[in-house]
Amino acid sequence: MERYNPHAIEKKWQTAWEQSGLYRFNEDAPGEKFYALTMFPYPSGNLHIGHWYANVAPDARARWLRMRGFNVLFPMGFDAFGLPAENAAIKNRTNPATWTYANIERMTGQFQAMGTMIDWSRQFATCDPEYYRWNQWFFIEFYKRGLAYKKGGLVNWCPKDQTVLANEQVVNGHCERCGTAVEKRNLSQWYMKITDYADELLDFSDTDMPEKVRLMQTNWIGKSVGAEVTFDTPAGPETVFTTRPDTLMGATFMVLAPEHAKVADLTTDEQRAEVEAYVAAAGRKTDVERQQEGEKTGVFTGSYATHPITGHQLPIWVADYVLVTYGTGSIMAVPAHDDRDFAFARKFGLDVVEVIRAEGAEPMAADAVEPYTGEGVIVNSGEFDGLSGGKASIAGIVEQLEARGIAKAKTTYRLRDWLFARQRYWGTPIPFVHCPEHGAQPVPEDQLPVRLPENVEFTPTGQSPLKLDTEWLKTTCPVCGGPAERDTDTMDTFVDSSWYMYRYLSPDYHEGPFDPAKDPMMPVDLYTGGIEHAILHLLYSRFWIKVMRDMGLTKHSEPFAHLRNQGMILGEDGEKMSKSRGNVVDPDDLVREYGADTVRTYLMFIAPWELGGPWDPQGINGPAKWLSRVWTLFTDDKVTGPAETVSEADLRFAVHSTLKKVSGDFERLSFNTIIASLMELTNTLVKAKRAPVFGTPAWDEALDIFNRLLAPVVPHIAEEIWAARGQDGSVHTAAWPAVDEQAATRDTVTMGVQVSGKVRGQVTISKSATQDEAMAAAKDNADVARFIEGKQIVKEIYVPGRIINIVVK
Ligand code: ANZ
């Protein structure tokens, strides 16, 4: 018998599967559709262990569904635009396209070595002109609907990458990609009107996402219900946004953001030098620095606002804790009931007036050291006194203020429109031309795609490299035919992943982004990937699909019916794997040493999939040994070792209860327990091979079922065994076995037998044994017999499954 040699079988089967088109998806095949999708990778050049971890478990599950009769679509592609390709091009003096396509080829090979059921005939890269053509088509369609527009304003600028960034790409004030502190610049840019969909994006009723993901998106959208209140100022009326109109009578000063348009007008000559210095300093700070808890800073403008009810004069200050990008960029400050306003008032000696008091509480002390932010009763507010106050009870107050023309109900969102343009090369060119006569005009549809020019300089200059290819730049106006210039910005690369799940349905379709006849394949039934995409990618794609729905392109409102996030495989040291830490595990090395099936097994076994955990280099030996045992079990005819007593019922119980457990575990994505159950079953089978049950129909059934159970997790060895057992076709198109419910539940029970209340022996009887049968078995037991011999039995007690008691005298 040959030893288990994965290298001899894995490549062989991968080639055979490829040749027979085993994993080609066909929408006309029978079975309920199931669309399983794992987030596509960026073609960095190498599949790392994280990619394996993210892909093998969903692959196993897709295979399991297929065996259960679902018609499963499981595609893969590459999210190929973005800065790393450009940076690599600058470093290696190659073209981003050359670098990217070489990486794609290498990574496709690595995916194939993993032995997945990916249908490679549907693969595409988002940098394929045939793909990004549809980004351009969508852009123009969105523009026609007023959803793509150009606007000037302050934008986030990364000084290192020399490009603007969307709010979503600024993490704690730093560039998400390179970590450089982000600056603000005033530029005219393209935006997508995602804010039109803010409310709908808060509704998750058609998409099942982990609680954490829903929360992150909800907070990102940041819906706040409140009111706008207008104050008179020397520079005209100024409206503030407040979520606490119930505290209006407690407003003791007003604060403007340093960038607020009225700052200059409101600043008196006396205060001008100080205010200008403060505004300049604030401009040099990042948003994070400005929002950090700590000493509040600010400066008085010298002007006053008039309180709309009392007519009191409220000093107007400038402070950087007020952001120009939120609400109206100005606030009414209520120090008695807001933390930041309180700290500010204490620092600058401004008035603190209590207007909300907790039920039964003492009045706020003059030297109070903190504000009261809870619910309560309105006080010190004239006609409003006695009403309930607090965040939860503002509706009635707003109504009253509205009736008097002082306030207007207002809902504000933190979500901003999606800044869509980048001044970089490796992305989708924005399909617009600029005509001196007719302004910005979309490129006619029949001229799409606008391809990226090939002769450009990649070194970042702060301008789009596309500007440097003058031949490409010059074009004609679609309206007048006169000379015009192309738009030289490229799209944010998040556009690429916003609708790619539709492209897999018909990757070669040329009449539109996808063939509408395939729409019923959507939504993706199970989408899997990292939690790092909880906001950006998911929010953008949810938005995109809603627009597609409104365009009449699709019937669906959500791209993903269910989303699940895998955890992360960390280094041995519990830290994130990274080259600089030197803790990276290379899956290629592991495959060379152990074979793909062992690596697959280990990655499913290493941790609960949704949790992840640290890599343990010793741990892989367990799965490696297990597969050797499995191999021997099936291929070695010699039976050695002491005889065992596994009965037919024991064997069938082990097989069918495992089958039942594994199915349930697949359903709930509990992959590590699947592997554990299969290992346990292997132990029973190894024993059964030395028991009388060996060679019986029950034994054959056990091997057949075990072979099928192995198929999703270890596809190569399962296929080899299938062939060796002389089965037809592929194990991967074989049916998932049906559970024999009776066999899966033990029908015997082992019970202690008491003689006059003392346990004297043990019997194994049928769960449905009658009193007579149970007593007969008990009396037959030698240990019990000794205690009843020669005695008179006065009572026999039998509670099925619980008690056998023989009372003697
Ligand atoms: C008066 C007030 C009294 C407020 C009170 C709060 C508590 P959320 O819930 O996050 O939407 N605010 C408004 N615009 C702001 C800006 N541009 N920068 C900084 N702060 C701003 O927060 C809304 C509250 O944050 C608003 O309600 C306003 O302060 C402040 F006891 O108005 B409030």
Walk me through what this model shows.
Its EC number is 6.1.1.4. Belongs to the class-I aminoacyl-tRNA synthetase family. This is Leucine--tRNA ligase. It is found in: Cytoplasm. The chain is an alpha+beta fold and 809 residues long. Among the domains are: 153 residues, Rossmann fold, CATH 3.40.50; 191 residues, Isoleucyl-tRNA Synthetase, domain 2 (Alpha-Beta Complex); 129 residues, Isoleucyl-tRNA Synthetase, Domain 1; 61 residues, Ubiquitin-like (UB roll) (Roll), CATH 3.10.20. The chain is 34% helix and 19% strand. The strands form ten sheets. Strands 2-1-25-26 form a four-stranded parallel beta sheet, covered by helices on one side. The protein has a four-stranded antiparallel beta sheet with strand order 4-3-7-18. The two termini are 64 Å apart. The model has no long low-confidence stretch (mean pLDDT 94). Ligand ANZ binds next to strand 9 and strand 13.
Summarize the structure.
This protein is α+β, with helices and mostly antiparallel strands. 34% of the residues lie in helices and 19% in strands.
**How much of the residues is beta strand, in percent?**
15-25%
Task: Supply Rg.
Answer: 35 Å
Quick one: overall form? globular
Q: Given this structure, which CATH class of the domain at 223-413 is correct?
A: Alpha Beta
Q: What is the count of β-strands?
A: 32
Low-confidence stretches: none
Please give the oligomerization state of what you see. single chain
State the share of residues found in helices, binned by percent: 25-40%
Class from secondary-structure proportions = alpha+beta
Per DSSP, the total helix count is 25
In which order are the strands of the major sheet placed?
Answer: 2-1-25-26
Q: And the CATH topology of the domain at 223-413?
A: Isoleucyl-tRNA Synthetase, domain 2
Bound molecules: ligand ANZ
Give the full name of the CATH homologous superfamily of the domain at 223-413.
Answer: Valyl/Leucyl/Isoleucyl-tRNA synthetase, editing domain
* Main pleated sheet: 4 strands, parallel
Average of pLDDT: 94
The separation of the N and C termini measures: 64 Å
**CATH architecture designation of the domain at 223-413:** Alpha-Beta Complex
GO molecular function, one term: aminoacyl-tRNA deacylase activity
Motif ('KMSKS' region): 576-580
Enzyme class: ligase
GO biological process, one term: leucyl-tRNA aminoacylation
